[in-house]
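can u do me a favor
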C-alpha cells in the first residue's frame, strides 16, 4: 500500500535579495509552546535555544567544511530567507509511541549563495537544524562544526565510551553499551568521547535531550568535553581507509587507518538533523518522538508483511532447559522445544542466536541443528523465525545469504558486532535495510549505534541494541535499577531499544550475583514485566529460559500478551534514575506501568484518561515479600473506571503493571482515520 502525506504547509518568501552584508538575527517561535530559536548569521552561524525566556543551549559556530568550497567560519552572506508553517499528521507504519503523530512546526530556511542552506525547525517540544547543499557530483566533507554551550550549573546524563584495548583502534570503536554518568557539564573531561543521545538538566529546571535524526551516508555525531567549561564539541569518525578483522569467537571489521575527511557523498543532499528535545520535566521527555518526525518518510510500497511482536531468545541462558527428556543445547530438540513454547504462549517469533551456523560463514550449518526443517516446523505452528548473523560474515555474501533465508521461510535477521558509526557503517545499514525489505525480512541490529529515524523509511528495522541491557547480568553488576531507570530518559529518546529482558531469576540488592549461564536481574520479577511496557521496541524478547516461564504460566501469559506497539503514550511521573510511571494504550486496552530504583515507593494514579465505562483490571504487583525474595509476585483483578485511581506499591527495585480492558467493547487497535496523514 502507498501512504500519502496530506496537510497544511504554508511557505512565505521573506527575502530573496542578492546579499545581506552584515550579521543578522532571525527568530523562530514554536507553534504554541514558549520555545524559540534565535539564529545569528554573519561570517559564522549560531543558534540559541530559548525556553520560557531562559537560554538552554547555544550552538555555534555551526556549519560544514566542504573541500575548499565552503567553510563554517567563513560563510558567504545570507542571500535568501524563507519561512513556512506545517501542521500535518504522521501515521507510522509501525507505531512505537502513538499511532497518530501530530507534526507541527515553524521553519526558517537561510540561503548562503546558490549552493548552501541552513534549515531550522521549532516544534512545541524541540528545536532542530540541518544543512543542505546543491553541488554537482560528489563532495568531500572535511568536517562539521558544532560547539554546544550550556549553563555553568547544568548537569548531564552522558554515555562516555570505553576505548578498545587494541592499540591500532581508536575510540570510535564501541558497542555503544555504557552506563550513564551523571556529571556537571563543566566536569566532562576533554579526553573522553560521548556518544548520543545525552540528557541535560538546566539550571532553570528544564530538560534538554540531544541527539540526531535522518542520518544517512554520513558518520554519527559524537561530543567531547571542553576543559573547565560547560561546553561540548562535535566529533566524527573519519572515513575508513584501511580495515582489518579483529576478534576470536566473533569477528569484526575494524578501522586501522582513517582519512583526513569524514565523508565523501553526493553534493546535492540534505545532511542530518541536530536535535534538541525540550521538556519542563523529565517524564514529559519520555513521550517525545521528534527523531521519528524529522526522519525521511516511508520508502516501501507495501508494509503489510511487517509484523511486530515478541520472540524467544536462547543465547543469554545458554539454552539451559530443565524438566525435559533430552540434553539441551545447540541441537534440534532444544529449538523444537523453543518453538513449541512460542506457539503455546502466542509469541510471534523464535530466535536462532549464534551457533546455528559457523559464526564466520553462514553457509556452514551446525550439523546438530536442522535449521530448514525447524523453520518449516515453526511456520506450521504459526511462529516466525529470526536468524542471528555476524556482520563481518553477512556483509561478504549479503544477497546470497538473504535469498537462502527467505527460501527457507525465515522472517528476519539479527545482524551483530558492527560497533561503529562511520560513513561506511551507515552505508551498510542502508544496504541491509533495503536488501532485507526486498525479501520481506525484518531486522534487529545489535552491536549498533542509537536509532536516528531510519526505521521510518524502512519499518522492517524493528529494533536495535545500542544499550547496556540484560545480557550484562551474565558477567557484571552494571545493570542496576538506577541504570534501568536512566535508559527511558536518555537512550529511549532516540528510538526503540532491544533490552532482551524477561528474567525469571530475580535478585534483590543483597542477593544478586552475576551467574553466567543462569543470569538473574537486579530487581523484582514485576519490574521485569514493567520493562515491556516502559521500554519501546516493536520486537521484544523473552530472554529467560522457557522451563522457568512454564513454572509461572499465569505471569507468563500476561507478559507474552503485552503489545509491542502503541496507539497512545502518556507519561505520568518520573525522575531520571529513580522512578517512572506511565500509561500506554493499544486499541481499547490500557496498560499502566511503573518502575523504581532500590527505594520502595508508592504512587496514586488517577484513571481520568480512560473513556467512560468500566474496565477489567488485571494487576501484577510486587508480592509482600519481594523486598527479600525478588521473585514474589501478586496478581489480582478488579473493576475500575475513569473516576477511580490505582494505588501502586513498589518494593525496592520493584515494578507494577495493570492491564485495563474495556468491558463490553470489541478490541479495535485501528485508530480513526484523520483528515491529514503522512507516512
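np, heres the sequence
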Amino acid at each position: 500500500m502507498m501512504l500519502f502525506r496530506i496537510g497544511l504547509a504554508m511557505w512565505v518568501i521573506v527575502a530573496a535579495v542578492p546579499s545581506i552584508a552584515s550579521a543578522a538575527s532571525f527568530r523562530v517561535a514554536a507553534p504554541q509552546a514558549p520555545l524559540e530559536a534565535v539564529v545569528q548569521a554573519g561570517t559564522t552561524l549560531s543558534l540559541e535555544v530559548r525556553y520560557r525566556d531562559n537560554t538552554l543551549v547555544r550552538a555555534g559556530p555551526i556549519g560544514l567544511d566542504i573541500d575548499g568550497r565552503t567553510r563554517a567560519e567563513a560563510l558567504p552572506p545570507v542571500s535568501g530567507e524563507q519561512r513556512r508553517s506545517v501542521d500535518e499528521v504522521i501515521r507510522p507504519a509501525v507505531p512505537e509511541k502513538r499511532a497518530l503523530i501530530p507534526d507541527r512546526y515553524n521553519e526558517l530556511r537561510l540561503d548562503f549563495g546558490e549552493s548552501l542552506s541552513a534549515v531550522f525547525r521549532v516544534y512545541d517540544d524541540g528545536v532542530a537544524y540541518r544543512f543542505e547543499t546543491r553541488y554537482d557530483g560528489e563532495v568531500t566533507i572535511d568536517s562539521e562544526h558544532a560547539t554546544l554551550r550550556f549553563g555553568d550549573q547544568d548537569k548531564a546524563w552522558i554515555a562516555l565510551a570505553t576505548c578498545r584495548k587494541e592499540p591500532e583502534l581508536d575510540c570510535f570503536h564501541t558497542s555503544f553499551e555504557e552506563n550513564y554518568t551523571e556529571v556537571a557539564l563543566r566536569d566532562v573531561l576533554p579526553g573522553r568521547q560521548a556518544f548520543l543521545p545525552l540528557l541535560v538538566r538546566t539550571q532553570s529546571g528544564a530538560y534538554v535531550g540531544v541527539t540526531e535524526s535522518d542520518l544517512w551516508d554520513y558518520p554519527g555525531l559524537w561530543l567531547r568535553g571542553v576543559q573547565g567549561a560547560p561546553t561540548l564539541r562535535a566529533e566524527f569518525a573519519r572515513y575508513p581507509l584501511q580495515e582489518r578483522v579483529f576478534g576470536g569467537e566473533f569477528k569484526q571489521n575494524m578501522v586501522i587507518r582513517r582519512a583526513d575527511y569524514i565523508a565523501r557523498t553526493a553534493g546535492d543532499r540534505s545532511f542530518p538533523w541536530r536535535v534538541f528535545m525540550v521538556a519542563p520535566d523529565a517524564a514529559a521527555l519520555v513521550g517525545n518522538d521528534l527523531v521519528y518526525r524529522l526522519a525521511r518518510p516511508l520508502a516501501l510500497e507495501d508494509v503489510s508483511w511487517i509484523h511486530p511482536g515478541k520472540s524467544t531468545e536462547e543465547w543469554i541462558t545458554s539454552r539451559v532447559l530443565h524438566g525435559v527428556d533430552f540434553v539441551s543445547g545447540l541441537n534440534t530438540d532444544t529449538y523444537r522445544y523453543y518453538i513449541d513454547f512460542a506457539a503455546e504462549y502466542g509469541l510471534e517469533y523464535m530466535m536462532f542466536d549464534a551457533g546455528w551456523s559457523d559464526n564466520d560463514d553462514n553457509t556452514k550449518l551446525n550439523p546438530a541443528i536442522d535449521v530448514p526443517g525447524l523453520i518449516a516446523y515453526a511456520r506450521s505452528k504459526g511462529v516466525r523465525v529470526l536468524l542471528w548473523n555476524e556482520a563481518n560474515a553477512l556483509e561478504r555474501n549479503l544477497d546470497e545469504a538473504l535469498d537462502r533465508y527467505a527460501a527457507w521461510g525465515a522472517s528476519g535477521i539479527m545482524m551483530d558486532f558492527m560497533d561503529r558509526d562511520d560513513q561506511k557503517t551507515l552505508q551498510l545499514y542502508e544496504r541491509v535495510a533495503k536488501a532485507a525489505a526486498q525479501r520481506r525480512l525484518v531486522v534487529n541490529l545489535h552491536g549498533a549505534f542509537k536509532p536516528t529515524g531510519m526505521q521510518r523509511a524502512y519499518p522492517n528495522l524493528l529494533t536495535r541494541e545500542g544499550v547496556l541491557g540484560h545480557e550484562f547480568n551474565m558477567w557484571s553488576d552494571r545493570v542496576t535499577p538506577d541504570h534501568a531507570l536512566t535508559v527511558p530518559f536518555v537512550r529511549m529518546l532516540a528510538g526503540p531499544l532491544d533490552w532482551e529482558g524477561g528474567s525469571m531469576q530475580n535478585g534483590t540488592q543483597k542477593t544478586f550475583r552475576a551467574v553466567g549461564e543462569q543470569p538473574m536481574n537486579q530487581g523484582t520479577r514485576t519490574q521485569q514485566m514493567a520493562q515491556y511496557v516502559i521500554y519501546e521496541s516493536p520486537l521484544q524478547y523473552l530472554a529467560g529460559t522457557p522451563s522457568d516461564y512454564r513454572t509461572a504460566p499465569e505471569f507468563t501469559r500476561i507478559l507474552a500478551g503485552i503489545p509491542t506497539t502503541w496507539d497512545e503514550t502518556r507519561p505520568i511521573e518520573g525522575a531520571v534514575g529513580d522512578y517512572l510511571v506511565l500509561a500506554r494504550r493499544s486499541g481499547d486496552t490500557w496498560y499502566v506501568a511503573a518502575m523504581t530504583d532500590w527505594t520502595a515507593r508508592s504512587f496514586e494514579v488517577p484513571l481520568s484518561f480512560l473513556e467512560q465505562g468500566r474496565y477489567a483490571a488485571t494487576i501484577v504487583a510486587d508480592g509482600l515479600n519481594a523486598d527479600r525474595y525478588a521473585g514474589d509476585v501478586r496478581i489480582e483483578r478488579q473493576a475500575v473506571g475513569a473516576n477511580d485511581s490505582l494505588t501502586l506499591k513498589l518494593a525496592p527495585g520493584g515494578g507494577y503493571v495493570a492491564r485495563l480492558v474495556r468491558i463490553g467493547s470489541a478490541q479495535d487497535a485501528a485508530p480513526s482515520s484523520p483528515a491529514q496523514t503522512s507516512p
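The two ends are 11 Å apart (CA to CA). hope that helps!!
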